[in-house]
Write a structure and sequence with these properties.
The complex is a heterotrimer of chains A (about 250), B (about 475) and C (about 375). Chain A is of the alpha/beta class and about 250 residues long. Chain A has a single domain, classed as P-loop containing nucleotide triphosphate hydrolases (Rossmann fold, 3-Layer(aba) Sandwich). Chain A is about 35% helix and about 30% strand. Chain A has nine helices and twelve strands. In chain B, strands 5, 6, 8, 9, 11, 12, 14, 16, 17, 19, 21 and 23 form a twelve-stranded mixed beta sheet that branches. In chain B, α2 runs antiparallel to α8, α9 crosses α10 and α10 packs antiparallel against α11. In chain C, α3 crosses α4. The longest helix of chain C is centred in the last third of the chain and has 18 residues. Classes of the chains: A alpha/beta (about 250), B alpha/beta (about 475), C alpha/beta (about 375). At the B-C interface, β23 and β24 of B face β19 and β20 of C. β23 of chain B pairs antiparallel with β19 of chain C, so a sheet runs across the interface.
């Protein structure tokens, strides 16, 4: 079982961004992708999630062996893909609680309903783990949230939606060390044999708290180097210059 | 139609969760059913002096009322259709083809047991008797031209609250109602207030004595059952000093082929320190022309709030207004409009400041779906030599589809430097990024749109009593279906 | 009077009616002032002291209908009207201009130019200047047009301007109007922007007893941008009636209208503005703001901002406010030793400056501020 990306080519606005990317994230593992700005890291997460602005021109994405090309954004979500956004959108007038309920309800078989009591119990427990004030349940999704609060909200949603493969798009950007630790705690609590993680990050700091099983370097739309966790430390010390000579 | 919804306050759920539930399976307008016509009294088709006399006779009206009608008819005939500023769709109304009066008699029943079976069944299907039992203080149910049922709870009647039909009000309580009748909205105010004044029938006359604060809402329900019919109810609510009342109005009609006209006049008078809240959820079928004149007169320290939701009808033209006549009076209009294919919601507010330190507030949110069109028309008037008046107006329009349309036409007139006014309007669509975010959480495009639209109007929906807000959201979800993809 | 156009123009004029109260576009307006029947053509003009020259600009001076100085390669003289169209309620006035206008200039520029036009107005009667601005592809054109009275006679200036901004061209156009307090001023302005074009148009109104200005701006080419700015400072006996129309007829266009009115004494302003977005003009970003600063208890402001939106992928908003100078601002200035009256004046000038600053041009801004300051000094 894995999330496999084979020779993926994708364009946005006619410009090619992914140029033959190959990657395999087995269930149970945490993989990190690092790379300079403009390498296409964010694009990769949006393509996997199925954003309509991004056009796949070649290659495929397989979720546990199934090609997801024909699936819509929400179908991919219900199939088990979760994207923690780098810039989460605000949804005015819709409370966090109701939003999560709607998302969970969308996964229930026809005619069945979420048990309200269980839902709230589960949500509060996870909020406590993430040190989130319970009053956030009533606030509109991400409206007026600080950067740190938005990122924590993404992790809360991930924990509630129980995905098979979670893509974290620069989740650490804008977080102070305490928020980072809390977020890492949330992610680590969800590590399990049935679940894979793809962590897209610019800085290696997050990887001190979420130890990856593999680290990949992305440059100009492709994976150019792969290694173990030490690779991240090397990059931190020497930067991405080696790419120019690679 | 209006369902009870129980709250789980322990876990702080709120009525918003109702939107999450599966959209109602029935696609049709819940009010789309009708019964064969069976009227004892029928004024025929078309309008002239004889029609008025017929109506007066059936109602056994005093002479002054009949004279009032005739003067109004002359005014109606002399005024042109206001198509120099309003939509030309008005020209589709053929006054000669409308039937102006159909009823079983002018006396409403005080018990549902006495109401004719098909009328009872109509209101049963719409949930009215059940509501009344559960939480209303009084109900009037109008079926075509007359109220079939009208009752106010004993306790209130003992306190001196009067809640009767327009005919009863003018006959039996002329001393209370006649002084104010036609004063807030004079006959000549516009072509349709003149029409209403000529053929008015049905509607509520309510008087709340000094200091009485009515805790539960009074409700009226208007139902059109006949084709080619015009409904012209007339409502007058007088809240005496220090009193408070909330009045709720719901309206539906079956879907007929031919155009139907609903032209109502609502006058509110809030005496010193009184408070009136008037709530309307309008869901007429798509062949109805809904042209309503609503205005309130607020005296010193009084407050009048119009809370208005327009979802149905082919064309609605309605500009609730408040004339703030006494110092520190307050006027407010809260409006939600939804226009779908073939619909034009032309609504707004009129705030006339006529005393110092008065405040007016208008919040209007509209949603245009398919090729629907929503229009806001506003007027704020603050004349010279007043001090300390404030107006705040906010109108936001949400466009859902490429052919959806919206217009905004406010007019703000201020004299002098003692006031503050602020008007802001915006037009936008549901952001793509927001939709992508919601879909990535597993919501289908339709579900995401629905949630976004509910979020857009959420603040305003909370102004409606709980029972209405749930139903409102359900109606909006129904309208949203099919708008996406 | 010049040679008339062919008789269809005159027939058209005669068939039209003067504005009346019930026309929507004249709501709150002084429609009687627009009735020019019986107004005779103006006579000869006279010289007067001219303001300081603007560096780099070519100056044209008109004494009434006569050009007394100025010439430039990109400029041709006009001896008749270009035939303006009024879509905001004054077709008869536009037709009158078509029949009787006998002077003006037409600028066709393809490079970088600054042109200044001064209209010196003398005596009673009707004066009808024309201005045509054609900025060809890639041009960077600045135009300053000034209206000044040399005496106190009641003139009627009926001026029309046609601005065409070609592909990727840029036009900055400033009009200052300082006529005497007996005169009337009517201006019909039409502009059309092509792909990638940019236009910033500003008007500063301090003179005349009554003015009617109709500004129609069309964004015809995608990615074009139109800024429409106004500073109006009416005093007792002055009524300024401005109607605008921002027409978005192409994709990804941007318009921003900012009108700042400061009303003194019994001064009166009427603002009506419509943002109109065509079907298919997706990606439109359109804004409209009208702010009224009420300086006395007798002034009167009417605002009618409007929107007519026929495309869904747009962002449009409008706003209108009216208030007096805020007490906090006055207090702050007084706490620095400035007297209340001067404090009020400083705040009000700052208020007007915001509209001027959007021109983003030092020369034009300086000129505009001078005109504004003159008015502030003249007010009580």
């Amino acid at each position: 079982m894995s999330l496999t990306i084979e020779n993926l080519h994708a364009t946005v606005g006619g410009t090619p961004i992914l140029k033959g990317l190959n990657l395999e994230i087995p269930a149970g593992e945490v993989h990190a992708i690092m790379g300079p700005n403009g390498s296409g890291k964010s694009t990769l997460s949006k393509v996997i999630a199925g954003h309509e602005d991004y056009v796949v021109t070649d290659g495929k994405v397989l979720l546990d062996g199934v090609d997801i090309a024909e699936l819509e954004v929400d179908e991919r979500s219900r199939a088990g893909i979760f994207l923690a956004f780098q810039y989460p959108a605000e949804v005015p007038g819709v409370s966090n609680a109701n939003f999560l309920r709607a998302a969970l309800q969308a996964r229930m078989p026809d005619g069945e309903e979420i048990d309200a009591v269980a839902f709230y119990k589960s949500m509060y427990a996870k909020m406590d783990e993430l040190e989130m004030d319970r009053k956030f349940t009533k606030r509109a999704v991400n409206e007026g949230f600080s950067g740190g609060e938005k990122k924590r909200n993404e992790i809360l949603q991930m924990m509630m939606l129980d995905p098979r493969y979670a893509l974290l798009d620069e989740t650490d950007s804008g977080l102070d060390i305490d928020a980072l630790k809390v977020v890492a705690k949330g992610v680590n609590s969800m590590r399990s044999p049935g679940r894979g993680f793809l962590i897209i990050t610019h800085y290696q700091r997050l990887l001190d708290y979420i130890k990856p099983d593999a680290v990949h370097v992305m440059s100009d739309g492709q994976i150019v180097k792969s290694g173990g966790a030490e690779l991240a430390l090397e990059l931190e010390e020497s930067g991405y210059d080696f790419l120019k000579t690679a | 139609m209006i369902a009870l919804y129980s709250f789980d306050s322990l876990f702080e759920m709120n009525s918003e969760t109702a939107t999450v539930q599966q959209v109602a399976l029935e696609k049709d307008n819940i009010g789309d059913f009708s019964f064969p016509e069976n009227h004892k009294f029928d004024a025929g088709t078309g309008l002239n002096g004889d029609t008025l006399d017929y109506i007066s006779k059936v109602k056994d009206e005093p002479a002054w009322v009949n004279e009032f009608r005739h003067k109004a008819l002359a005014v109606f005939e002399s005024k042109p259709m206001p198509t120099n500023w309003a939509t030309e769709d008005l020209n589709a109304i053929d006054f000669d083809k409308i039937r102006y009066y159909l009823s079983d008699g002018a006396t409403p029943k005080r018990s549902w047991d006495d109401v004719p079976p098909e009328v009872l069944e109509t209101f049963d299907r719409l949930g009215v008797p059940e509501q009344e039992r559960a939480f209303l203080a009084g109900v009037e149910a109008q079926y075509d031209s007359e109220a079939a049922y009208s009752n106010v709870k004993e306790a209130l009647a003992e306190e001196g609250v009067i809640f009767v039909t327009c005919s009863e009000g003018l006959k039996e309580h002329a001393d209370i109602f006649r002084p104010w009748f036609g004063k807030v909205i004079p006959v000549g105010d516009n072509k349709f207030s003149a029409l209403n004044s000529a053929v008015m029938s049905g509607g509520s006359f309510i008087y709340i004595p000094k200091g009485v604060k009515v805790k539960h809402p009074l409700q009226a329900y208007f139902r059109i059952n006949s084709e080619n019919f015009g409904q012209f109810e007339r409502t007058l609510i007088i809240a005496d000093e220090g009193s408070e009342v909330m009045y709720m109005e719901g309206c539906t009609a079956p879907k007929f082929e031919t155009a139907t006209l609903h032209s109502a006049v609502v006058e509110l008078v809030a005496m010193k320190g009184a408070k009136i809240q008037y709530i309307t959820v309008q869901n007429w079928s798509s062949n109805v022309f809904n042209l309503v004149t609503k205005r309130g007169l607020a005296h010193e320290d009084a407050e009048i709030r119009w809370i208005d939701c327009n979802i149905g009808s082919r064309l609605t033209m309605k500009y609730p207004g408040v004339v703030m006549k006494g110092e520190r009076a307050r006027g407010e209009v809260i409006s939600i409009a939804l226009a779908n294919d073939g619909q034009h919601q032309d609504t707004g507010a009129k705030m006339i400041h006529a005393a110092n330190n008065t405040t007016s507030n208008v919040i209007s949110k509209s949603i245009s779906i398919g090729a629907g069109r929503s229009t806001y028309r506003g007027q704020v008037h603050i004349p010279k030599h007043l001090k300390g008046c404030k107006n705040n107006t906010e109108c936001d329009a949400l466009l859902i589809n490429p052919k959806s349309r919206t217009d905004t036409y406010p007019a703000i007139s201020v004299k002098g430097n003692q006031h503050v006014t602020q008007h802001e309007a915006s037009v936008s669509q549901v952001s793509k990024e927001m939709l992508f975010y919601m879909q990535q959480r597993g919501l289908s495009e339709t579900q995401a749109m629905s949630l976004a639209v509910n979020g857009f109007i959420n603040d305003l929906v909370e102004e409606f009593p709980m029972e209405y807000s749930v139903e409102l959201k359900r109606l909006i979800d129904l309208e949203m279906e099919g708008s996406v993809g | 009077m010049s040679a008339t156009l062919t008789s269809p123009a005159l027939e058209k004029f005669e068939a039209l009616k003067w504005p009346v109260r019930t026309v929507e576009n004249w709501r709150f307006g002084a429609w009687k002032e627009a009735n020019l029947s019986g107004v005779e053509p103006i006579g000869y003009g006279t010289a007067a002291d001219l303001p300081a020259e603007i560096e780099g600009a070519t100056r044209f001076v008109f004494q009434n209908a006569e050009l007394v100085s100025g010439s430039h390669d990109s400029v041709t003289l006009l001896s008749e009207s270009f035939g303006p169209e009024s879509r905001l309620g004054s077709p008869k006035l536009a037709a009158l201009h078509s029949v009787q206008s006998d002077h003006g200039i037409s600028i066709t520029a393809s490079g970088k130019e600054i042109i200044e036009i001064i209209h010196l107005v003398t005596g009673e009667g009707l004066l009808l200047p024309s201005l045509v601005i054609n900025a060809e592809a890639g041009a960077k054109l600045r135009v300053i047009q000034r209206f000044v009275s040399t005496d106190d006679a009641a003139a009627v200036v009926l001026t029309a301007v046609d601005v065409n901004v070609g592909e990727k061209a840029e036009v900055k156009y400033l009009v200052t109007q300082e006529l005497n307090r007996a005169s009337r001023f009517i201006r019909i302005a039409d502009s059309c922007l092509q792909t990638g074009a940019s236009a910033k148009q500003a008007v500063i109104h301090t003179g005349s007893k009554w003015l009617r200005e109709e500004t129609y701006s069309t964004l015809d080419g995608s990615d074009s941008q139109s800024h429409i700015l106004s500073v109006a400072l009416p005093d007792t006996g002055q009524e300024f009636d401005q109607r605008t129309f921002q027409h978005h007829g192409a994709r990804d266009t941007y318009s921003d209208l900012l009108f700042k009115n400061t009303l003194f004494g019994k001064g009166k302003t009427i603002f009506s503005g419509l943002i109109f977005v065509d079907e298919g003009a997706h990606g439109t970003d359109a804004y409209q703001t009208c702010r009224n600063l009420m300086m006395s208890d007798d002034c009167e402001a009417h605002s009618m901002p409007g929107l007519e939106i026929n495309a869904d992928d747009v962002k449009c908003s409008h706003g209108s406010t009216s208030a007096r100078v805020s007490d906090e601002e006055i207090f702050y200035l007084m706490a620095r030793g400035i007297q209340p009256k001067l404090a009020r004046s400083l705040v009000a000038q700052g208020f007007s400056a915001e509209a001027v600053e959007k021109l983003e041009d030092g020369t034009l801004e300086t000129l505009a501020i001078e005109v504004i300051e003159r008015k502030f000094q003249a007010v009580d």
